[in-house]
Write a structure and sequence with these properties.
arginine biosynthesis (chains A, B), Ubiquitin-like (UB roll), globular, L-amino peptidase D-ALA esterase/amidase, about 400 residues, 11 helices, autocatalytic cleavage (chains A, B), homodimer, EC 2.3.1.35 (chains A, B), 7-stranded mixed β-sheet, amino-acid biosynthesis (chains A, B), about 35% helix
Amino acid sequence: MTSPIPAGFKMGGFHCGVKRNPNKEDLSLIVCDEDTVAAGVYTTNLVVAAPVVWDRARTPSDKIRAVMTNSGNANACTGEQGDKDNAEMAGIVADKLGVSADQVLTMSTGIIGHHLPMEKIRTGLDEVFQRLGTDESHFDAAARGIMTTDKGKKVAAVECKINGRPVKIIGMCKGAGMIAPNMATMLSVVLTDAQLTPEQAKTVLADVTNTSFNCITVDGHRSTNDTLLLLASGKAGTGELSGPALEAFRAELEQLCQDLAKQIPADGEGSTHLIEINIEGAANRDDAKRIAKTVADSALVKTAITGGDPNWGRIVSAAGYSGVQFDPMGMELTVNGHLLYREGTPVKFDEKTVSQSIKDNFDTNVTLKFNEGNARFRYWSSDLTVEYVKFNSEYRT
Amino acid sequence: MTSPIPAGFKMGGFHCGVKRNPNKEDLSLIVCDEDTVAAGVYTTNLVVAAPVVWDRARTPSDKIRAVMTNSGNANACTGEQGDKDNAEMAGIVADKLGVSADQVLTMSTGIIGHHLPMEKIRTGLDEVFQRLGTDESHFDAAARGIMTTDKGKKVAAVECKINGRPVKIIGMCKGAGMIAPNMATMLSVVLTDAQLTPEQAKTVLADVTNTSFNCITVDGHRSTNDTLLLLASGKAGTGELSGPALEAFRAELEQLCQDLAKQIPADGEGSTHLIEINIEGAANRDDAKRIAKTVADSALVKTAITGGDPNWGRIVSAAGYSGVQFDPMGMELTVNGHLLYREGTPVKFDEKTVSQSIKDNFDTNVTLKFNEGNARFRYWSSDLTVEYVKFNSEYRT
């Protein structure tokens, strides 16, 4: 088997001591062989961490040379010192590569409101440069280096043909909720050897985000650090993409981002189910998304799934308060393929069978069909368990 | 002490068997001595119960003669039969009073998707008419008759002077979350002997709802049955209200509705804290409300309070993703009077002292000040506990 790592990138991870556990990497570095196209999608939270401010100002770009991430400390709500520390981190990486600090992107995740332990990071950056490589093991170390409370690394890879050339796309992400003590954030980096312009990278990334990372919820809390980066080395020899070739790339990237995104609620804190919510027959996509999100965020829907309870009333009433106008008589609900509700009234169904199908499967499918049009939307959510509450209400000292 | 019951109303409650426990009233009846002014505020959920459809079509009015409520069954998602049952219930009350069914308002709360046990209700209605009276004990029986999983009756009373005349306002409400098995709904009835026109009743009720019943959250789930009714008998001899007199009445009604509304999250399922969220210095009221609601609905803020954790990062970041534009550097956070965050950075504070103040008090005050203007808003929320999740994830059979 050939390596799934796209040409043009080296990567590695290292433990420098931001995290207490010496077996857990807390630095992750991706180095580009040459100036590389990069684009980003960032948190919409008004309260943003230093690295988000830094990256936003430097993407899209065709001159990026590295992505440097630390985990264990979010460098958020850290004032001017936070900006200085972030710039120093980028500067150290840049110096080692002989490039400008503006060519280095940064990400941080972990506790909010504490200054970065710069001494440890300086030493760690020396070390991580010794550990770069192009094997899957290097990618895995880099993927572990962005984790916080994730149970394991979250990665996905795609190989496809674009313009007749083999193209690789590989991605890593992290996130399991906004969690005590303020361990925040969804981070993701996707690498490809396809050729894109900075504007294409920006557009295609924003586009696929709408049907992947923007369609997941654990607890509805958008963090101060959320960042998704796409780097395109162009080394696959596809030439510039346009028309059907660009669309083919977009579709592959969307699939990969959905694979990555779903891993987040599947690993949601205390989660015992991954809930997929399908909305069909809505008047338009915005409506479909709004209904899907409202159902996905409902604590009562989540707890019903936790308990294996085919509680259609909670799902139907959540759709009803989404703010979307629809004919309630045209609504039809199935859970794991079982029809529960149609035309304004409950349908007779065997509660035990449906309950058992929820209990027996990690994946739960909730499908709501409407009579308004042809728009669809899909959303993924974790359920809500006693463990989630325990984990998030335990005092951190 | 004189009775707190406004002149012009009789009331009572009775157990007819909709609820299993024979000690719990499940019928509640309020009868007006004469044609009475009434207005309502109803759920914004698109999926609405039969009594909501009925009352909406008949308010505001100056001809109302009774409010009839059953608890234990919401008569929601019950199709045409549900509408028929509701009309029959109103008709029985109307016949006994010798008035038209259109002069009787109805409310239902309880399980969704089951037809009303009409035989029991018919018999019960005969009985409840024997138990009407004007004492506080009658009011309490009526207040218990609208309860579902509430730990106790929720009532409030005000006596004041309007246009030089003593005026009474008294209210009852129920609600503790949208709970298994679909025990839904916030219901409230407020009675006064002040004199209002139907339009005044409608306007003043909608107005005070915005700062009371619309400012509370347990789990953010708006039910199919939510109803708030105001009945004004005019028996206090105030004459028609206008100008300062109307404003004085509005202020008294607002205070009473806030007293009632706060009792709902205070009795939220599994709740161990009533959280009051104060937003100050916002650009406008809508912004202030949006920030308040976002903080109030955050599972991470709720669980932090449950655990006595002065976790300012969760509160600050919730404000940040509310969708409201503000200067993050102008934000200041206090919890129970302790300053935790100012000018984009955490403030040094004694975590143990703040934690202890959260643990020692049922009421928690969260105040976020902004530098945008002078608008304020207040919101009340329950915390989120293991008991809430247990209660809502237990399978109902």
